[in-house]
Amino acid sequence: MNGLIPEPIARQPWAMLIPLFLLVGFGAAVLFSAAGGSMEPFASSHLLRFAVFLVMGSVIASLPMNFVKFMTYPAYVAVLLLLLAVELVGAIGGGSQRWLNLGPIVLQPSELMKPVVVLALARFFATLPAGMVGQWQSLVLPGALIAMPMVLVLAQPDLGTSLAIAFGGAVVMLLAGLPLRWFMIGGGVAAIAAPLAYFFGLEEYQQRRVTTFLDPESDPLGAGYHITQSKIAIGSGGISGKGFNQGSQSHLQYLPEPHTDFVFATMAEEWGLLGGLFVLIIFALILRWGWGVAIAAQDRFARLAAGGLVATIFFYIAINLMMVMGLAPVVGIPLPWMSHGGSSMLTNMICIGGLMMVNRWNRETPRRGLT
Q1: How far is CA 312 from CA 21, 73, 169, 172, 336, in A?
Q2: Which residue, 184, 217, 273, 341, has most beta carbons within 10 Å?
Q3: Rounded to whole angstroms, how far apart are CA atoms 334 and 345?
Q4: What is the domain partition of the chain in residue ranges?
């Protein structure tokens, strides 16, 4: 078979690409149904965006390691400046100021910061001497690299994206070998600071999301409507679902945002538990491949970068699924490769491109001791 398949095709990471193609296709089918049995306006643009960003991911996968290391810090500074520009001249939509109108495209810089902060921290710890990992220098500067974009994103306000930035950065710090007690202390400080953040750091609508998460039935027709209808849609699907294009919750517009944040609920109503298991298995295969790429990396920068990129994808998946099942507040995190939306697709395809890049580095680097 190796002689029949051209080498450029055979060397592609099909263990990840085949599940990814299946997931995107399944997502397009769900979006087709969410639009009432039409490719417009969701399914067609979903497939087009994936095709465009797949090309972008392929370009990222071809980048040499030295170039990526050299560009990591400039890229971080550039995206941070874009976040500052959002505060000054950003476009406002839905009560939030998150976008830059650049003519033919509308850019959300906070989405770019998720993978960029992972690369910046990986670069920092790759150059930090091993003996300094447990000292204060290994915490202060990385903490600042995470805190600066978080503050700017929270000001937009965008709680979900700021948490995603923090999660990806924290995972890189953990993989870099920072003492576990530091994370335990940080968790304790966060628990103490949570009430202050709730009363003084969150907007009123964000506070309602938290209280609704704790007791959605207290206001089923108001603040708890999203979660209540999502649970109804998921539960009504049963084992095998109501059938393709037969979902009443989405078609009758009981389920809010059936094509974006709550696309999993749309899918579960029509495809049931079997559809849900299919999606979870696909995600598990993609994450397992990504983690394998991180473990196989021979360079410390590559290993930390790959681990952080996998964590970023995992955060999207875990928070969205918990959100639609009422296990987490509604924070506006889409489901990767299924939800309709260019920003989410961009971020996750950058992560996939980065993992493909590290996978190529692994293939081209002779096996040796870890550095």
Answers
A1: 20, 19, 9, 10, 11
A2: 341
A3: 9
A4: 13-62+214-362, 71-202
Note if the bond before 157 is cis, omega within 30 degrees: yes
Say what the pTM is: 0.88
Enter the tokens of residue 106: 């509308």
Give me 74's structure tokens: 């400039």
| Beta partners for residue 99, in sequence order | 91
Q: Which two tokens stand for residue 342?
A: 């260019």
- The crossing angle, in degrees rounded to 10, of helices 109-127 and 342-364 is 30
CB 145 within 8 A of CB 124: yes
List alpha helices for the chain, DSSP H: 7-10, 14-34, 43-61, 65-89, 109-127, 137-154, 159-175, 180-196, 204-214, 225-236, 248-251, 263-296, 300-324, 342-364
- CA–CA gap between residue 219 and residue 79 (Å, rounded): 39
Question: Which pair of structure tokens corresponds to residue 362?
Answer: 């692994």
Between CA 332 and CA 22 the distance in angstroms is: 24
DSSP-derived 3-state class of residue 107: strand
Q: Which residues contact 295 (CB under 8 A, 6 or more apart)?
A: 303
Q: Is 65 exposed, middle or buried (0-12, 13-18, 19+ CB in 10 A)?
A: middle
Q: Is the peptide bond before 41 cis (omega within 30 degrees of 0)?
A: yes
| Residue at token pair 């055979």 | 10
Copy the structure tokens of residue 258: 């059936």
